[in-house]
Amino acid sequence: MNKVEIKARLEEAYSDFLKFIDGLSSDEFDYAPEGKWNAGQQAIHLIKSTKPLVKALGLPKFLLKQQFGKTNREGRNYEQVVERYKEKLATTTMEAPAKFKPEAASHKDFKKLCEAQRAVIDKIQTKLNKWTEEEMDEYVLPHPLMGKVTVREMMYFSIYHAGHHQNLVKLYLKGV
Q: Which candidate, 84, 66, 89, places its Cα nearest to that of 139?
């Protein structure tokens, strides 16, 4: 995927997630099995996990290089990133880091959550305008589960991540 496609897919993935949770009844929105997150908490987690990308993508590239280095391998495509994430999820008991864990949320919070997520995705898209295709494959960012990933791979992950959490809500509502 090139940058234009990534921006479109980010928009689509997060819009789909927000439309899905907007279609839930208040009871469905607020429901979660014991120890799991409800739809609002899933939304907060997505906001918390995409918000740091705004800052990272806006940093001078020499600072990213200084802090995280540059890639030393071939970049992964979307399918490879998704597969790697699924493998890591299946082979670890790691929970989301504290800074990505959501606080309580209910259906009354939907509008605020929707506005916050849309604003973050808009900012990511704007920041991506300042990145070349080559730079997206050259610079790396830390992912809590997958380690260092290229900027392009982080965008692929972020696209997948929205659908992953939408599917979790669907599974919980089905009683799985």
A: 66
